[in-house]
Hints:
The complex is a heterodimer.
Chain A: H1 10-13, H2 19-23, H3 26-35, E1 38-41, E2 47-50, H4 53-61, E3 66-67, H5 93-100, H6 106-110, H7 113-127, E4 132-134, H8 135-140, H9 142-152, H10 159-175, H11 177-200, H12 206-212, E5 214-215, E6 218-219, H13 222-253, H14 255-263, H15 268-278, E7 283-288, E8 292-294, E9 297-299, E10 304-308, H16 309-312, H17 347-364, E11 369-370, E12 375-376, E13 384-386, E14 388-390
Parallel strand pairs in A: 2-10
Antiparallel strand pairs in A: 1-2, 3-7, 4-14, 5-6, 7-10, 8-9, 11-14, 12-13
Helix pairs in contact in A: 7-9, 7-17, 9-13, 10-11, 10-13, 11-13, 13-17, 15-17
Chain B: E1 7-11, H1 21-25, E2 30-32, E3 38-40, H2 51-59, E4 66-70
Antiparallel strand pairs in B: 1-4, 2-3
Amino acid sequence: MRARPPVQDWAGDFDHLDPRWVNDPFPIWDELRKTCPIAHTERFMGVYFPSRYEDVRAVAYDTDHFSSRRIIVRETPPPPIPAPPITSDPPEHRPARMVLLPPFTPDQIKMLEPRARALCNELIDKFVNRGAADAAVEYAQEIPVRLIAHMLGLPESDGDLFRRWIRMVLEDGITDISAVIQASTEMQVYFMDHVRARVKKPGADLISYLNSVEFKGERLSPENVIGSLRLLLIAGIDTTWSAIGSCIWHLAKHPGDRRRLVADPSLMPTAIEEFLRAYAPVTMAREVVKETTIRGCTFKPGEMVLLSFPAACRDPDMFPDADKVIIDRKENRHAAFGLGIHRCVGSNLARMEMTVAVEELLERIPEFSLDGEVTWSEGTVRGPRKLPIKFN
Amino acid sequence: MSDPKSLKVRVDPEKCQGHNRCKAVAPELFVLDEYGNAREAGDGSVPAGLEDKAYLAKSNCPEFAVEILEE
């Protein structure tokens, strides 16, 4: 990665890859919300950063001026790599989304829960007697990889391959466009083989479902199937890995919350929603396609908007005591899964994985604490990438 | 002393994006369609004792799609 000049002015020259932003963005966002609620940078060929809930919401709802054809801020725009429906705008968005929704309803996801519980315990078995583990590497990251592979009918042993592509698309690819292109090409080839195999011999997996599903009498084009698979793989792994990791990070640092959850598991639903709010992992982006003005700030076509659901979720105008993690928070309209037509398709899956991961860990290892340096991912998805914990 | 007000919940189908929060906090008051989008159960009448859950559903909807009507 090229050396980047350090940021002197967050309002007019921010950089979301600056180590200070990566390690602890919250004070930066709090300051911006007060002094310059829509920040801007000339870096990355021009990006706006709304930090208030209301403005993030306005951008998310306004698909006329803000397009999803580019959803990641990069130094150079890549050739279009469609992953419908996340990269689609109306009117193409709706049919691509409708076909993806039925396999992700709460009832469908509930059926995966036993597999998730078994999987978590298999992972815990490997480190429980050691008294220490990297909860990000040995636990959090393995859960979504294996469950998505299970859903798609792909070998769980291909997890390393999936993680490599995700890193190339979401992290390396921000500054090195060739990484995005290479990962996309490799995924294309990988998925083509699996799609063809399922055409010959359909199974009970999501690839077979996408091959045969119809919307208003029409099947998806092969490009659409591959694009949606690319989306499910990339969006379903890093995100939940990060969310689970942040839950464990919080519980390692806050024994009071941890012991309260162990003593009263009925708090789990509100705790998970609060972790989603306080440590929302996903920042999307939009491309400005028509000039418009929000809060006196003019958005110029061709530039990008960093759509920070994490910053929106920390806005005190929307969430009282926004900087405090309150595991029994009753009213929580958090935006961790986005707002508007692009609400995360996998939100029920993510919630189930987070709940099961935390429950099983607390069941087996109720007392644990941090044991060394924690590192955080940069860019589109925020979560711990090294999370050493120790326990008795 | 006036009668306690009776409540009805309603999901605005134009606003609902299928977050499923209402169904999670008040399962008795909402149903989901095959896409996971919510609507009120029956005519939306809130049985006595479930008023708090109705307000909880409203205050947890990220899309502000849940409405409560007092009759």
